[in-house]
C-alpha cells in the first residue's frame, strides 16, 4: 500500500472544560491518496493515540462510529507485514474483548466493518479526551456559502435542488450527505444517465469530434485522458436559507481523476436505484476546491473557495481557452455547412 501525504486543514476538537482551559484543540489533517491491491482512493486522516498506540483516524462525516483496525486480524487476513504500510495504523489489542461477539457495520459500496466495543484512552495533541464532539474548522476567504442541514438529519445532510452542466439542468431534488469518508458522487440512476449524456455531448461539441465516456470494470472512464480539457464543470445547487440557492462548482480537473496504468482517466460517479437509497452522497474528495466548516450546533455547513494555486489556475485557464477555441471552430464549421446547404 502506497500513500501520498499532503497537509490539508485542521481538525478542531471541542473538549470538556475539565480537560483543557481553552476547550479547543487543533490537530493536523492530511489528505492522502491510497493505492491498495491495484485500486486507488482518497481519504483524510488525523494522527491520534489510542491506549498510547499511534494511529491515523479517517475523518468521516458520513459515519457516527469511531473504530480502529485490530493488528492480529489484519495480519491474519492479509499478510504478517501488512501493518507496516497500513495507512491508518494497527491497534494491538491486549484484552479478551477482541475475541468477543462482533457487530457488523455495512457501508454503501458493499464493504463492511466488524467491530467489538472497547473503552480506552484517546489522546489528541497530548491531551487525554474522555468525551469528544468535533467538527472541521479551517481558514477561509470570503465570501462564504452557507448550506443548512435538513431538519430530519442527524448527520451532515443538506438538500440538493439540482445539477447544472453546460447550461443544461438535470432535475434531482433530494437529501445529499457531505461525506468525508467517500471520494464518490452517488446519485440516482436516472440522474447519472442524464449527466453522462450531457457531459459527452458537451465535450464532443467542444472537441469537434465524438468524446467517449464508457464503463469498464464497473468504473466510468474517459477513453482519451487528454479530452479532459473539453469537459464542462458540474454545478450543484443546494437549498439555502430563505430564497438563497448556494451553488458549488466542481471543475473537470477535480472530478476527472489522473490516468491509471492503462492511460485512461476515471470519473468518480456511481448510481443507485431509487428503491435502494433515498439520500445522495457527495464525497469530500470532489470538494477540494473549497474549505468546509462543519457547524453541527448551527445546523449548517459553510463553503469557501480555496485560493487557486498557480498550477490549478493555469490548468483552468488552459482548459477554458481550449474549450472556447474548439467550440468557436466547431460552431463556425457548422455555420458554413448550413450556408452551403441553403445556397
UniProtKB/TrEMBL annotation:
GO terms for molecular function: aspartic-type endopeptidase activity. Residues 317-343 are annotated as: Disordered. InterPro entries: Aspartic_peptidase_A1, Aspartic_peptidase_AS, PEPTIDASE_A1, Peptidase_aspartic_dom_sf. Pfam families: Asp. Keywords: Aspartyl protease, Hydrolase, Protease, Signal, Zymogen. GO terms for biological process: proteolysis. Residues 1-304 form the Peptidase A1 domain. Residues 1-21 form the signal peptide. Gene3D superfamilies: Acid Proteases. Belongs to the peptidase A1 family. This is Peptidase A1 domain-containing protein. It comes from Perkinsus olseni. The lineage of its organism: Eukaryota, Sar, Alveolata, Perkinsozoa, Perkinsea.
